[in-house]
Amino acid sequence: MASPTSVEDYLAGLPEASRAALEKLREAIKAAAPEAIETISYQMPTFKLDGRFLVSYAAFKNHCSLFPASDGVVEACGEALEPYLSGKGTIRFTTNDPLSSALVKKIMKARIEEHSAHTARK
Known about the structure:
Elements: H1 7-12, H2 16-32, E1 37-41, E2 44-49, E3 52-59, E4 64-67, H3 71-77, E5 91-93, H4 101-121
Antiparallel strand pairs: 1-2, 2-3, 3-4, 4-5
Helix pairs in contact: 2-4, 3-4
């Protein structure tokens, strides 16, 4: 399979259950970070803010993942994230147990705050 050139191409190549779960996630991210730009990076849908990485997501055989790449998100979301954590900066979920919109909003709030703090330091 060729590398996707757009988020729509990426999603179109997924099984229906994975596509539905990631489309729901995508909409929650867009709602929480309307200024973020969507792109493909490392063959995954990615959101960037001011040209810098914010989050990416992907579907795998038995799960989906959200990659905020941040210990700060884990700290900010606390126990709500514990069932989904898998490795540093990886949030795993299944199509049967997707992330709630409220949790995605909380994750995105933490990522945007980190982004803003990093930008202010520069």
